[in-house]
Amino acid sequence: MSELEAVKDALLGFDAEKLAKATEASLKKNISPQEIMNVITASLKLIGEKFEKGELLLVHLVASGEAAKRAISEYLEPLLSKEGTVVAKIGTVAIGTVAGDIHDIGKNIVASMFFSAGFKVIDLGKDVSVESFIKAVEQHEPDILGMSTLLSTSLPIQREVVEALNNKKLRETVKIIVGGAPVTPEWAEEIGTDGYAEDALEAVNVGLRLLGKE
Amino acid sequence: MRLNILSRDELESLHLTILEVFEKTGVKVHSERAFKTLKENGADVDEKTHLTKIPSHLVEEAIRNAPSFVHLYGRNSKYRLKLERDSFYTVLGSTVTHVIDPETFERVTAKKTYVEQAARVADALPNIHVAAQFCLAMDCPPENQDVHEMEAVFTNTIKPAMVIAYSLQGVKKIIEIGKIIKGGIERLKREPLFFVYSEPTSPLEYSEKAAEILIETAKLGLPILSAPCVQAGATGPVTLAGTLVQSFVESLTGLIIAQLTRKGTPCIIGEVATVMDMKTAVMGYGAPEFSVINAASSQLAHYYKIPFFGTGGCSDSKLPDAQAVAEATMSLLMAMLTGTNLIHDIGYLESATTGSLEMVIIEDELYSMLNRVVKGMKVSEETLALDVINDVGPGGHYLSHQHTLKLITEEHWFPNLIDRSRYGAWKAKGKKDLLTKAREKLHNILREHEPEPLSNDVLKQVEGILESPKSN
Ligand code: B12
What we know:
The complex is a heterodimer of chains A (214) and B (472). Chain A is an alpha/beta fold and 214 residues long. Helices cover 57% and strands 13% of the residues of chain A. A 5-stranded parallel β-sheet of chain A has the order 2-1-3-4-5, with helices on both faces. Chain B has a 7-stranded parallel β-sheet. In chain B, strands 2-3-1-11 form a 4-stranded mixed β-sheet. With 472 residues, chain B is α/β, with parallel strands linked by helices. Cobalamin sits between chains A (100-107, 109-110, 146-148, 150-153, 177-182, 197, 199-200, 203) and B (94-97, 136, 164, 166, 197, 199, 201-202, 209-210, 228-229, 235, 281, 283, 351-353).
């Protein structure tokens, strides 16, 4: 098996340890970081497709995403940034669960799927205040801001964030998507966001569509 | 009839692992008050992260200090539920965002009227023992929503209720309502009209709000329930045993805080522990694994001699359809067979996001039917019927025998909604299926059932609590 095949094999085996080793071995053989990146991205895409077809499970998706994240941040990104190349990303997503709400597993899954689809993901955590959302937009300039809430009582926070972004003249700089059990497409529209998704898979599709990268 | 799915040895293994998780991994307790209490009582704490490792002697002492029974009362002392040993009672579902409207059968946004309707339905049905919010009063002011919901419950049923509050402020007001209805804190303590639900966050955290609600209730000596929602494979280990272990660590953390706050506080432990469906990322409320974890947990709680709150009668179906009834029947039966003292979330559909009163009606019937299963077979000289068989002999019949007449209603179960009529009779009555009949019964109750009203004076005082300012 070639080094690059080993990378793909490790990822399709959802094995972070093996992937790290295969990445290291590839680099030793002078394979360029960008080339390794491409293999990782293609493998993640394949895993995503298999999930969509019902051949793989959520755990495989998350595990491969996290394995890839480790290999990229530990081995590839440092080299690429030394070369002055930025890792090619589809876009940046900042995502958090809104203030008053500590349900976070859904948000974590959405974050993980965005990562696997090739986005840079900034996880703002749970119980995130309006101010923190605004700060994140100012600081990271994400292409997409995602807000999750599972509590009807925390829904108004989503509206407040949109309004605060409007007031700060930042609204046009970012696409906003919302989700979580009590969120509906009607609500998403009413408060002036750009998109809603019922699950993580759809969330990524909406994200891609909003960035014109479908 | 009683089902035990674990051996004594397996129970010991679970218990020892639970103790080890407490000592080795610990729980993050985000409330200052709770954290301080645990620290003062010998827990090994990290001031920065609030990680609290609890030594086994503290855990075991708290389990010993918690009473082995909790009794709940309705408005009057006659309605009493004894949560102890193998007793089992049903609890209405609680806080869904959507309901199936009883008139249109459309899935609609929850509002206070539905909370009131559900309480009346629970009041009317003999096999729904504990009331609850059922759904959210989403048309009420958010800062007072929980108080509105519980007011709607307490004014529409004489039965005891489960309380879910969204803030410390909310729980205080709801306790005030309880005091008014029961006539003071002493009577409320002696005859608790409710228990308060506090939810740890899986994995292994206790949020400030949940802990504060727990402490507030425990301080007054009112019954408290501590129960997490764990999803095996996502917020808990993929294995059922591992998820049970983690869930008990979380639930017992609440019990420990309650016992340290006030020794002897009536505590109920429990959980909503099932799998995350790894194809849809949905928490499986109709999953068979749910029933297995519940069965084992109930057994472990019995081993601890602490009342157990488990789950049953729920579904992932979007409608009150065949899937819903199949899933509800499975989990109800398992919960009843394992002596789950409180079986909650009757009427939940769509993974705990939609409530159906038709399902509540159907489950009232299911409970009655399954209760016959749980009653099992009585074996005695009389039931063995040696003399009766001899009496009737070959070729005779038993229809008119005194033995039959005497024992028929004790030995046989009679359906109410479930249909056993012959085709012609069924056709003549309009070819109704179970759901149609359930809806008719629901409409009857909503039209005709008037719960015993509270006195005007009490109502006025309760009204006052609703209208009292936020900073109460
Ligand atoms: C697990 C759970 C908990 C756990 C959460 C632990 C954790 N680590 O996350 C705990 C026990 C802490 C908890 C607490 C409470 N809970 Co809760 N909880 C649930 C439950 C059962 C499952 C949620 C879940 O994890 N689902 C699985 C995940 C993967 O799905 P998901 O979150 O929906 O995410 C998917 C999509 O929605 C979407 N998505 C999610 N976020 C985003 C964001 C974007 C941008 C996009 C595009 C898409 C998207 O993609 C995700 C993946 O496919 C739900 C019921 C339900 N079925 O939703 C109730 C539920 C949300 N909880 C509820 C309640 C009432 C509470 C409590 C108030 C109860 C109490 N007694 O205190 C507290 C509140 C705590 C707080 N302040 O937040 C109610 C909400 C009612 C309401 N007001 O709206 C629900 C509906 C259950 C019920 N009927 O009672 N809960």
